[in-house]
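On clarity, I found the account of how folds are encoded harder to follow than it need be. Since the whole study asks how a given chain folds, the encoding of that fold should be made plain. For illustration, here is how one protein appears when written out as sequence plus C-alpha cells:

:::
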Amino acid sequence: MKEILLRPSSQDAGGRIDIYIAQNTDLSRSRIKNLIESGKVFFNDKEVTKGGFILKEGQVKVLVGEQAVLLAQAEDIPLDIVYEDDLIAVINKPQGMVTHPAAGSPSKTLVNAALYHIRDLSQINGVYRPGIVHRLDKDTSGLLAIAKNDLAHLSLSKQIADRTAERYYIALVEGRVKEDQGVIDKPIARHKVDRKKMCVDEKGRKALTYYKVLERYPEYTLCEFKLHTGRTHQIRVHAKYINHAVVGDAVYGKKDKFGLDGQLLHAYKLVISHPADMRRMTFEAPLPPYFQEIVDKLRKKAGLS
C-alpha cells in the first residue's frame, strides 16, 4: 500500500474532495469513490466518508495500491525561465500550457517542463504539483514563481496568504470601462449547475480585485488588474460581473472577433520577497506577441499611435 499526499491550497478550498483528487492524480472518479467507501481517504488524518466532503487548506492522504502511484515525468519542453537561483525560479508560462498534471492533461504541463529544466523542486504539493506555489489558468499567460525546496515553498505560500506577494495582470476587456480605477469586492463560488465554472455568489468566498484603466478604444479597454485574493478564475469572473468580460474568454465572455486561442489575460508583473533574506524582487514579462499585435491594431485604429 502506498500513500498519495496532496496539500490543497486556499485556491482549492471550497471544492469537493473527490473532484480535487481526480484533478490532481491519475485515479478515476469511480476508483476514488471506492477508496472513500473503503476508508482509504483522509483529510488532516481524519477519515473522509463522503465524496462531497468540502476541502479546506490542509493535507489529503489517499491510500492506494503501488501501481496507482505515478510521478509526474520530466519532459524536454521549452520553458521561458525569467529568473533562477538555488531557492526559486520564475517562469513566464505561455498561453495553452497547463500548470500541472491533472485528469485530462497528464503531460506537456509546466511541471513536466520544470522537472526537465530545473529538476530540484519542492515536494509540499505532492508528486503531481512539485514546486507549484500558485498557478495560472491554461489559457492565461505570464509569471509564476516556482519553489525549489520546501522552505522556499512555505515562504512563498505565506506571502500569498498574507497578501504581501503582489500579482498584476493586463487584460483586454469588452466595452469601454467608464471608471479610471476601482475595486471589485464580490465573493466567488463554484457554479451550482456547471461545476467547471465559477460565479459571483454572496455565499461564496471573499474575493477582491483592483483594476485600473490603461487605455480605452472604441469597443474595448486595456486594463491592469491586481489580485488581493486568489480565487479560481477570479479576474475572469469579476470582469464578467462588471459587464466587461476578458476578450477571448470562451467560458465567461463573448465570441471574440480576433480568432484567439484563449483569453487576452497576461500575468505581467510579480513582486515577492526572496525566501533567503526577504529582499523585495520585482519581475515583469512583456505581452505575448499575439496580444501586443491586437493592442497595436486597436491603438492605431483609435489614433493613439
User: Anything to note?
Assistant: The chain has three domains: 2-64, 72-162, 164-281+297-305. The CA atoms of residues 10 and 190 lie 14 Å apart. The domain at 164-281+297-305 is CATH 3.30.2350.10 (Pseudouridine synthase).
